[in-house]
Amino acid sequence: MSYRIVHYINQFYAGIGGEEKADVVPEVREGVVGPGMALKAALGSEAEIVATVVCGDSYFASNIEKATADILEMMKKYKPDAVIAGPAFNAGRYGTACGGVCEAVVKNLNIPAVSGMFPENPGVEMYKKSFYIVETPDSAAGMRAAVPAMAKLVLKLLRGEKIGTPAEEGYIERGIRKNKFYDKLAAERAVDMFTAKLKGEPFVTEYPMPVFDRVAPNPAVKDMKNAVIALVTSGGICPKGNPDHIEASSASKFGEYDITGVMDLTAEAYCTAHGGYDATYADQDADRVLPVDVLRDMEKEGVFKKLHNKFYTTVGNGTAVASAKKFATEIASRLKADGVTAVILTST
Amino acid sequence: MVKEIERAGLPVVHVCTIVPISLTVGANRIVPAVAIPYPLGDPSRTMSEEKEIRRHLVEKALKALQTEVSEQTVFTD
Q1: Rounded distance, CA B8 to CA A326, Å?
Q2: Which residue of B has its CA nearest to A58?
Q3: What residues pair up with B14 in beta bridges, in sequence order?
Q4: Do A347 and B22 touch (CB under 8 A)?
Q5: Which of chain B's residues have a Cβ under 8 Å away from the Cβ of A219?
Q6: Domain A3-169 in this protein, CATH class
Q7: pLDDT digit string, tens, across residues A202-227
Q8: Where are the domains of chain A?
Q9: N or C: which end of chain A has fewer CB within 10 A?
Q10: How far apart are the C-alpha atoms of A192 and A204, rounded to whole Å?
Q11: A339 three-state secondary structure
Q12: DSSP-derived pairing of the beta strands A82-89 and A113-117
């Protein structure tokens, strides 16, 4: 008898559609769908994908609790021994959904769950402590590497075999500490490591420190009536035609656009460059993402002194954290030089 | 991005739909928005109703900017 596996994928990998279909509610299909084919091959005869649950990424992100509960119910009916989700690569909403589903599976069904993600996927930071996430490249081009690694890990978990370190098994570190015996005393090992460091030789720490990159909140704006407010967005709003050719995903740049005298973002003049959500609504009325019309009204009413005459935009869609960091550092220095008091940043 | 703007010394409010992601990336002042493709609107309503929704969210964002916080704070109604 082979192990029973239920696979979770999004609307895109199920062939339902792209962003325009990201709102589809969860559904279940018998057998394999999409990337399930490759998984089936990698699992061999030892495990069988009995069903595939499909859910739209936006639907999941907007209805996390209900979607998770409904998906669990669908999965339960197939009496799975394990659940595999994704791989989600660097797709943020998909990663969040895979993470949410797998965490619920581990907690409520008490069976193993495995997903695959690029380390910068926000789903990693949110869920890596709850279950095993295999490290994958950032795009679907890495499917061939991701699938066998995920299959191998899930089979090990099903057989109840001992799981090795993240480096040995290819999963993302979960922050779990294990005791281990060495022949050498700790003091000797520390000195060895120290001398290696002094010589510039490679060494591996026995206790990696968690990285907490948090920034303390700045003091509140005390005098709003005299404040200059600036708008920044990762939603890709730009003048129609996207003059700076900001990429629809994995953006390599940001745009700075003058809105002096612009009271309202009209469909004739503005659109979105973003390729990671259904652009229909932002193209109809970009104020839905970047609220220039309302801020102009409030500026007129004297709620604050001035809406900054430039806005900044990029596309937050699979964009590397390092790029986003670089853009924002540059944007912030320009805003400060221009005397801006505070920032409203909108994200889709 | 929100974190780097904060790091530079500018108070910033993140208006976004997926609050868990905002918390993960380290935003300190968070205002939950309507939906992913239209965070500050709702195409199922009339334009004037939409603008009211947007006005309400922007007012919340400005209020968040005027509120002292010592840790990550989600400003709900």
Answers
A1: 12
A2: B36
A3: A345, B30
A4: yes
A5: 11, 68
A6: alpha beta
A7: 998 888 776 668 899 999 999 999 99
A8: 3-169, 224-346
A9: N
A10: 11
A11: coil
A12: parallel
- The tokens for A3 are 């192990």
Secondary structure letter of residue A225 according to DSSP: G
Give the pair of three-digit tokens for residue A41: 């091959």
Report residue B16 as tokens.
Answer: 């976004």
pLDDT in tens, B41-71: 999 999 999 999 999 999 999 999 999 999 9
Q: What interface predicted TM-score (ipTM) does this complex get?
A: 0.97
Rounded distance between C-alpha atoms, residue A310 and residue A90, angstroms: 30
Q: At B55, which amino acid appears?
A: R
* Chain A residues within an 8 Å CB radius of B70: 217
Cβ partners under 8 Å of residue A302, min gap 6: A225
User: Position of tokens 């943020």?
Assistant: A92
> Which positions 100-159 of A are in contact with B (Cβ < 8 Å)?
122, 125-126
Residue of B3, B4, B5, B22 to mutate, interface with A, max A Cβ within 10 Å: B5
Q: Are strands A27-30 and A47-55 parallel, antiparallel or unpaired?
A: antiparallel
Tokens representing B24 are 């993960």
User: pTM of the predicted model, to two decimals?
Assistant: 0.77
AA identity, residue A249 = S
CB-CB neighbours of A283 under 10 Å? 15
Residue located via tokens 């699979």: A318
